[in-house]
Amino acid sequence: MDRHKVKRQRLDRICEGIRPPIVNGPMPARPLVALLDGRDCTVEMPILKDVATVAFCDAQSTQEIHEKVLNEAVGALMYHTITLSRQDLEKFKALRVIVRIGSGYDNVDIKSAAELGIAVCNIPSSSVEETADSTLCHILNLYRRVTWLHQAMREGNRASSVEQIREVAGGAVRIRGETLGIIGLGRVGQAVALRAKSFGFNVIFYDPYLPDGVERSLGLQRVGTLQDLLMHSDCITLHCSLNEHNHHLINDFTIKQMRQGCFLVNTARGGLVDEKALAQALKEGRIRGTALDVHESEPFSFAQGPLKDAPNVICTPHTAWYSEQASIESREDAAKEIRRAITGHIPDALRNCVNKEYLLLAAQWSGIDPATVHPELNGAAAYRPITLASDFLRILED
Ligand SMILES: NC(=O)c1ccc[n+]([C@@H]2O[C@H](COP(=O)([O-])OP(=O)(O)OC[C@H]3O[C@@H](n4cnc5c(N)ncnc54)[C@H](O)[C@@H]3O)[C@@H](O)[C@H]2O)c1
Q: How much distance in Å is there from the Cα of 256 to the middle of ligand 1?
């Protein structure tokens, strides 16, 4: 067979498997919007009913999502209990916007979404106060030992003499003068700092991504390195977003840089802490106590994983964000963002698009003749259209 014809056939086969970028344009007359990992749409429905059909999937993975949703949904609402990798995103054939009902979006591959023409939004204001309040509850609990005292009473311990009180409340520490180290001084981190100051904590923070001056506006002490923060804190609380650079930020090595017997609180993301290293440090008393709202594997179970036989652990099931008011507000805000996507132009009409930069880049590249672009140019090899283009070129050159 003609050599060029064989190459052309191979190229055609590859092209069949590639989804063309979604170009912004008019949406279908009555677009389908799906809540992926929940079943209650009563808050969203009144906001969307005149512009979209709203369905729920109640799925924990894309394998559980109905084909109609995969083929037709243009909008998706989601909580933190489902993950959308590139492979998952590719299953959606008409999707243009995803809104995370919450602030963290580490469970969505936002770069891949952009390359597939899908805008991803979050609700950054959601639950800032609730998460900060829950964090303070955890910190106070570690210092004042409320959970453990409650447990002791439940188990029949009736401390009455001073000696008995000393025994049951042993480990309780005065807060004034203690140093609280905050890793990640974003919305929640700042709210925690303000609250902690009023309890008498000396507050220090580490956040390499913030411009100079935040420490002045909030009256906090900034440290330049993670090591500085670890070495100078009596209690460390995590409030950074989870990203490709900080998985297991707290590990055996960084734990060894902490003060002997310090406390650790995590209401940010489970992936920030190596639970195996934490369990070991708790057993050895290097960490005196820990309070965790988020875990490496969720839903968390005390019966499984490295923390199952570790002492001085307080856990809550990723509920730091929850209050009835916060839940309703963030669902309303998410539905309004979907509405803006349906009635306006994506991404300009969106208020909290977290992959706008990638989306614009991907759109820019998809409008360029791939054959004229060198794959290394401007780091373009990281973007799918270019990777594919270089694949095309390689095949043609074979
Ligand atoms: N447990 C819950 O229910 C709950 C609720 C809300 C938010 N969260 C989580 O809390 C965290 C904070 O939320 P937010 O709304 O304040 O986010 P945010 O984006 O406002 O703040 C995150 C901060 O972390 C900083 N950061 C990123 N990587 C860092 C690193 N390696 N070291 C130090 N700082 C780093 C960023 O510069 C930013 O200032 C997120 O992980 C979010 O997912 C959890």
A: 23
